[in-house]
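pinned: reference chain
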Amino acid sequence: MKVAVYPGSFDPVTNGHMDLIKRGAGLFDKLILGVLINPQKHPLLSMEERIDILSELTREISNIEVKAFQGLLVDFVEREKADVILRGLRTSEDFAYELPLAQANYKMNRKADTLFLATAPEYSYISSGGVKEILHFGGDIKDMVPEVVYKRLLRL
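pinned: its structure tokens
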């Protein structure tokens, strides 16, 4: 069984995330969405909210699990017996950032390769950070996030 971990803060989940989740679910027997607990960040949504949202958005995709983790990604990958770390690339800057991480992860756990998927062009401008900034200044994020996320963010 081929198992992949797609890690991220998912704060908030964007349409770009959902594109990669759906495509990743089609590539692997099981796709684990690893929701990172990062004590250095101040998330917009709580861990529970992010897990609830991802669970709701993926409930009809039978081979997806949503789990929180903290610490090293490679330790989480090993605990989950995963073969692959799935990462999305929007820009060449993403690649420059992600490549050294992928190489370090491989050095620490040679059983888990990183697979990069190019973001669909229509989502390449969307990032969670950008969504949060636009939301903060009262801009329209409706086309950047799934409907359930949009409704949740409007209540903040």
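why pinned: The mean pLDDT is 95. The chain has one domain: 3-154.
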